[in-house]
Every structure is written in structure tokens, then in C-alpha cells.
Design a protein that fits this description.
Layout: H1 2-55, H2 62-142, H3 147-178, E1 187-190, H4 191-205, E2 210-215, E3 220-223, H5 225-241, E4 248-256, E5 259-265, H6 300-310, E6 314-319, E7 325-332
Parallel strand pairs: 2-4
Antiparallel strand pairs: 1-3, 4-5, 5-7, 6-7
Helix pairs in contact: 1-2, 2-3, 3-6, 4-5, 5-6
Length: 339
Amino acid sequence: MKRRAIIKQKSTRFITYFYFFLLIYILAALIWWGISLFRQSEIITESQQRYLRLTVDSLQHPLLFQQEMARIAHDERMRKFKYWGEGITFLLVILIGAAYVYRATRRQILLSRQQNNFMMAVTHELKSPIAALQLNLETLLKRKLDAEKQQKLLESMIAETNRLNHLCNNMLLASQFESRQYQLVKEQLNLSELVQQCVVQQQRRVQTHQLISHIDSDVWINGDMLTLSLAINNLIENAVKYSPRGSTVEIHLHKDKAMAIISVADEGMGIPDAEKNKIFNRFYRIGNENTRKTKGTGLGLYLTQKIVQEHRGMIRVLDRKPQGSIFEIAFPLIRENFT
């Protein structure tokens, strides 16, 4: 994987160098073309003046001679004006086109890198639960275990299966959102109960962190239960991933005028200001995939933002004092539920 990444990096560098070389060559050709035209204009002017001196006597016909010389000078100015106008127009077209092509190429290269990181992340994400499932199954086949140990292995296998299912759901939903094929099934739902269910599910799966919830009762919105639960679970899982073992993750739900506000706060290292807008991009993850320790695919926050936007809501990330991050999402309340 590292060797392939190095080869891709060298290829990207070669494309960038070749692009700038080609751009410099085109600009040099344009400048040379302009210099040649100006020289040609001077030659034309000198030839016309020489021909005029041979055909018109400046002493016998001074007025005609001056008029023709003025016409020749005017023609030269008009030619130069034309050359300058065309040259500047061509230069602007070339620079605008070059900037557009460079941005498009750079965006495509960046997307290719992110997709490569995504494939590496998915490979890591799939290997872990598959390896755990295989080990547990082999243990059950080869050894005679008592009922309690069998129960623990089965619970572990169910947890790993749920993890695989969650990953597949994220990938499928991201694809459907991208192609605009997913249709939300909105209904009036009790957001308080939904958030509480997500917290309980996550607490069963997470043994390394303490989840503390402060949930107001009877908070009702119009929404799609499946995607909303996915968004809430994504935020809680992210908070657990990026905060130290033994720390606390707090989940709040309350009403604020016409909005339902869900916030998930962790005690991690926080997110730099420069990264706060990028983390919602598809496949984007902070750091390098080869050195990163935290698991993930770069789809969780992208999907969460998409789901929130589909529900006419808002999402933002805030700094938590003294350290950590707070992810906050807001959904419009049902009118009868306003406070």
C-alpha cells in the first residue's frame, strides 16, 4: 500500500510539472507570436514609407505627402492596437482556462487520493470484524466451552455483525444520496425516544466510555426514522472514536424555540479551525491513512450532514472547553410542539 501511494505521489508530481511546463511553453509561444507581429508591423510601415518617398515628391506635393505619412502612422497604431487587444484576449482566455483545468485536475487528484484512502479504510474496517468472527467460530468448533463462554462469544459475534451491517448501510446510503435515489419516508416521530434508543444501543456496544444523556421528553419532529438514527449513531460513534478510553461522552436533546437541538460532546483533542469545514466532505479524514490509528471510512460525517440537510436542519461543530468537540444538529419542530 505504501509503495503504491509513493508511486501515485510521483505520478501526481510528474503531471503537475508537465502541466506547468506546457503552460509556460504556450505563454512563451504567445509572447513570441506578439513580438513577431510587432516586428512585421514595423517592417510594413517602413516599406510603405519607403514606397511613398519613391512615388510622391515631398517638395512638390507636401500636403499629400504629409497626409499619406499620417495615414501610414495611423494604420500602424491600429495594427498595434489590434495586436495588443487580441494578445491580451488570448492571454486571459489561456490563463482562465489554465486555472480552470488546474483546479479540475487538482480536485480529481484529491478525490482519487480520498477514494484510495477510503478503500484502505474499508479494507481495515472489514478485516477486523471478519477476523473476529472467524476466530470466534473456530473457537466454537474446536473447543467445548461452557454455556457462559459460548454466550459471550455469540454476543461478540453479534456485535461484530452489527458493525459490518452499519458499515454497509453507510456505504449504501452514501451511494444512494450521491445518485439522488434515496427517498425519505417522513413521519411524525418522537425524537426523544429515538435519541434514547440510540444511546442505549451504543452503551451496550461501547464498554470503554461512559455515555451520559440529558434528554427532554416529548420532542416531536417530522423525519425519517432510519436515517435519523443513523445520523445520531454516527455522531456518538465519532465521539467515542476520537476521545480517550475512560472519558465521558455527553448527549443532550432540548427545545430551543422552533428547533430541536441534539448535541454530542466528547473529551478528545478537538478539531482545528482549518479542518472544521473539510470534515463533512465525502471520504475526508484528518491525517494519513497509513499512520492513522482511529478506524473509519470518512463517510460518517458526510452522511450525517446529508441527512440533516434532507430534514431542513443544520449541523455545526464547536470547541468544548477545556478540550474536546461538540457536534450540534438542529431540526424544525412540529408546530404544535413549539415552546
